[in-house]
Amino acid sequence: MDEPKSVPPQVQDQQPGSQKQMTPQPATEAPGVKGSGKLQDQVAVITGGDSGIGRAVAVQYAREGADIAVLYLNEHDDAKETVRLVEAEGRRCIAIAGDVGDEGFCRKAVGDAVAQLGRLDILVNNAAEQHPQESITDISAEQLERTFRTNIFGQFYMVKAVLPHMKKGARIINTASVTAYRGSPQLLDYSSTKGAIVAFTRSLAQSLIKDGIHVNGVAPGPIWTPLIPSTFSEEKVESFGSSVPMGRPGQPEEVAPCYVFLAWEGCSYMAGQILHPNGGEIING
């Protein structure tokens, strides 16, 4: 696809950020991608599904025949737009607001999703936050705990909540990051959580394969999502993604096919694996 090499400088003053405020808008709808019934009549729960990668996954899952439950923190306008896009594909979609770092919320949200949509076949653990700091000494105990609670505790909580509803053939897909493999000096706590997610994915896959549940992950590179302008300075936003071999940030619609593949029943001989849509960076992971 013919994408610009850079994006205009911009910042947002609150995480996890609003897609509605971004310029240009992230490409999440993949209008040229046609579904083929890979996920017909399945139900997927997607955390962080209101915008960015989560929204793109929701749309492409719907295009493949799935109904969607979108979990999000507080970005109500973005979540409404995701619901609209999924329904435009002819599928059902519900949006549930809350904090995945709260185990009680995860249990209730999963229960509500099953009650309203009838079943649960796919979990996409995608919610995350990041807070750059120049030095480890600048990372407060509160920030450290908050980042781990959202990024990795939330994945544990969601898996615990969905397992009683999952049957043989179910899929769990965890969002890691390229930073888990190459590190990031300004994102020490974030990259640490993403490394934990890789280990969690591999270990959970071994634990659940006997039950016929496949666990895999995706480790995106620099993707144009609301997390970027709500995290970095204008200067860093303008150069975001320029260092990868493709020379540009990726779009959420370019990442979503990885999640479609890993959720598809044809992906039956993969477990504990991580896919790497990262603009050509070789990370040997």
From TrEMBL:
Keyword Oxidoreductase: yes
Record key words, sorted: Oxidoreductase
Family matches, as Gene3D superfamilies: NAD(P)-binding Rossmann-like Domain
Gene Ontology MF: a single term: oxidoreductase activity, acting on CH-OH group of donors
Family matches, as Pfam families: adh_short_C2
Residue segments, region Disordered: 1-37
Segments of skewed composition (Polar residues): 9-26
Family in the record: Belongs to the short-chain dehydrogenases/reductases (SDR) family.
Name listed for the protein in its UniProt record: SDR family oxidoreductase
Lineage: Bacteria, Pseudomonadati, Pseudomonadota, Betaproteobacteria, Burkholderiales
